[in-house]
Write a structure and sequence with these properties.
The protein has about 600 residues and is an alpha+beta fold. Among the domains are: about 240-370, Ubiquitin-like (UB roll) (Roll), CATH 3.10.20; about 375-595, no CATH class. The protein is built from 14 helices and 36 strands. A four-stranded antiparallel sheet has the order 22-30-29-23. A hairpin with a 2-residue loop joins strand 1 and strand 2. The longest helix is centred in the N-terminal third of the chain and has 26 residues, at about 45-70. It is elongated and about 110 Å long. This is Vancomycin resistance protein YoaR, contains peptidoglycan-binding and VanW domains. Keywords: Membrane, Transmembrane, Transmembrane helix. It holds the Pfam family PG_binding_4. It comes from Micromonospora phaseoli.
């Protein structure tokens, strides 16, 4: 025992955690009077020792309680769904909670009654993913504040952490909403000609997915019916703001033209073109934002930009001396539209000073000489010829020559699809085509462009024997002996087209030529197949023509008539001595009537 008044350090291996400095006490203490009840008076020293003892006892008991309360990961007195989890490790608590959930499985699986607006329905908890997240719940139960002294000897009920599949719940609730809800009406400003037309916004009436999920999660474990509210969601842009956009932008935008200036001259952008290019687009929140669709604006300007722009020219390829020859193209100049939209928006609200400027940027051709030379166009892979009568002076022959010259030299890149209608456009008088017989509604009648079907058949066969992919073609209604049966094609603007796809890794060049009695189409590329041939099946379902008398006159075209029949043709493609493709083509020809330009005999 260490005497007070001595300052003797403890052994080095038994030092107290808190160092207390020794205190010197008086040798003689004054005699204090005894209390009235006769109890001996207590000295200050005694009271100090007594206080220290009491404090030590209290702290010891508190420490003991703390040790007891916080034994395990989950503090004692903690329960979930009426199950005591306190004093357990997390794994034991999770195991006990799962056992409790298993005991309540039938109750938790019971349909949940949900009311939305005026409708009520039952939702299967499993179908919307309603579950208790055991691990998250135990983690919540284990989280206790270090200063929560009031919890040491008390108890607490932890709400379980519930999870739900929000998209599935939303889908189930939307079915319940049905016609009670409404979609948001987005604001809009469009043009009818140059007159602005508005659509004012209206709020949606629907469930809020996140809020609905919270309501359902809270109500599920209680077993009580749940009410999910319908919520109005207003578009960001209001009706007043729509009117302001009309007054400040839409109306003045089309009140006068805008002048576009470049280094090569100027172009007038008409109010009609402005109306087609000006857009007011609403995002998903209903915010209406003006912009200029430059592509639509260019389209609305039509050929006007041609006065200040220079179109790029592709490199070309021709056949000279039996070999392909490349001629280089040239770069063009085009209005730089990167800033044009913003510049236009800046001047459209103005009544005057409506001028914008734009730079001309260089535009390279789609097909340069270098690229054309890398396409592997080096040899003739297929050729086909059809014959015609009347010489080159007849209107029909002239039409064949016109379309052949138009298509000559066309290069189809790998993977691209060629459309004959798309390439030539409308074939009318302005394009140099003449009147010649065409088949219309089952009769031969005069029509502009007659004879182009013969060229179409010639081109179809050339691509067919080149092994290229047939995309679209239609044989004639009647069989003509000048064409191969089934393997032929008609064309008519704009409804009937001929298309093929370059399904090779090489470029395809279409070369055409003609004589006074024939037209030839040759396909140049890199040869892939050993051979492409046609095998015919027998003709069947043969029908005989009938005789039809027509009113005589300059528009009547007689015909001898022909039989109708059905026939199959098979394109057989071989490589390395083996058949690699066998494609079936079938067609049924109607019997062509014998047309006689005379009154029917009585």
């Amino acid at each position: 025992m260490t005497l007070y008044g001595e300052e003797r350090p403890p052994p080095a291996d038994d030092r107290p955690t808190v160092q207390v400095k020794a205190v010197s006490w008086p040798v003689e203490e004054p005699v204090r009077p005894a209390p009235p009840d006769g109890t001996p008076a207590r000295s200050p020293r005694f009271r100090l020792l007594l206080a220290s003892g009491v404090a030590t006892a209290v702290l010891g008991s508190v420490g003991a309680v703390a040790i007891w309360a916080y034994a395990g990961d989950v503090p004692r007195g903690t329960s979930v769904l009426g199950t005591e989890l306190g004093g357990r490790s997390r794994s034991d608590a999770a195991r006990e909670l799962r056992a409790q959930l298993d005991r309540r499985a039938a109750e938790l699986a019971a349909p949940l009654q949900v009311r939305v607006g005026e409708k009520t329905a039952e939702i299967d908890p499993a179908e919307v993913g309603l579950t208790v997240d055991v691990d998250a719940t135990v983690a919540t139960a284990a989280a206790t504040s270090a200063h929560a002294v009031d919890r040491l000897v008390g108890s607490r009920e932890i709400e379980p952490v519930v999870s739900v599949d929000v998209p599935k719940l939303e889908a189930a609730l939307e079915k319940l909403v049905g016609n009670q809800g409404r979609k948001m009406t987005m604001p809009a400003i469009t043009f009818s000609g140059t007159k602005p037309k508005v659509r004012y916004p209206k709020p949606s009436l629907a469930i809020d997915p996140e809020h609905s999920a919270q309501v359902v999660k809270e109500g599920w474990l209680s077993g009580q019916p749940v009410t999910v509210p319908l919520v109005e969601n207003h578009p960001t842009t209001t009706s007043d703001e729509v009117d302001r956009l009309v007054a400040e932008l839409a109306e003045p935008a089309v009140a006068a033209p805008v002048k576009l200036t470049t280094d090569r001259g100027s172009v007038t952008i008409s109010p009609e073109a402005i109306a087609k290019g000006l857009r007011f687009k609403a995002d998903k929140t209903g915010k209406l934002t003006p912009s200029v669709d430059v592509k639509q604006l260019r389209s609305a300007l039509g050929n006007k930009l041609g006065s200040v722009e220079v179109a790029p020219k592709n490199a070309t390829m021709t056949i000279s001396g039996g070999k392909p020859k490349i001629s280089d193209g040239r770069a063009g100049q085009q209005v730089d539209t990167s800033k044009l939209g913003d510049d236009l928006l800046a001047v459209l609200p103005r009544a005057d000073e409506r001028t914008v400027s734009a730079d001309l940027k260089p535009v390279q051709p789609k097909l340069t000489a270098e690229k054309l030379g890398e396409l592997g166009i080096k040899e003739k892979v297929a050729s086909f010829t059809t014959n015609f009568t009347g010489g080159l002076s007849s209107p029909r022959s002239q039409n064949i020559v016109t379309i052949a010259n138009d298509v000559k030299g066309t290069v189809v890149l790998p993977g691209d699809t060629f459309s004959l209608n798309g390439h030539t456009g409308e074939r009318g008088y302005a394009q140099g085509y003449r009147d010649a017989p065409v088949i219309l509604d089952g009769k031969l009648v005069p029509g502009v462009g007659g004879g182009t079907s013969q060229f179409t058949t010639t081109l179809f066969n050339a691509t067919y024997y080149a092994g290229l992919e047939d995309v679209e073609h239609k044989p004639h209604s009647y069989y003509f002996s000048r064409y191969p049966a089934v393997i032929e094609s008609t064309i008519f603007w704009p409804n009937l087209d001929f298309k093929f796809r370059n399904n090779t890794d090489y470029g395809v060049l279409i070369d055409t030529s003609y004589t006074g009695s024939s037209v030839t189409v040759s396909i140049w590329s890199t040869k892939i197949w050993d051979s492409v041939k046609t095998e015919y099946g027998p003709r069947r379902n043969i029908t005989s023509p009938k005789t039809v008398y027509l009113d005589p006159g300059p528009t009547c075209i007689p015909a001898n008539g022909s039989q109708g029949f059905t026939q199959d043709a098979f394109r057989v493609i071989k490589k390395d001595g083996k058949t690699v493709k066998r494609e079936k083509f079938s067609w049924t020809y109607s019997a062509e009537p014998r047309f006689i330009c005379a009154k029917a005999p009585s």
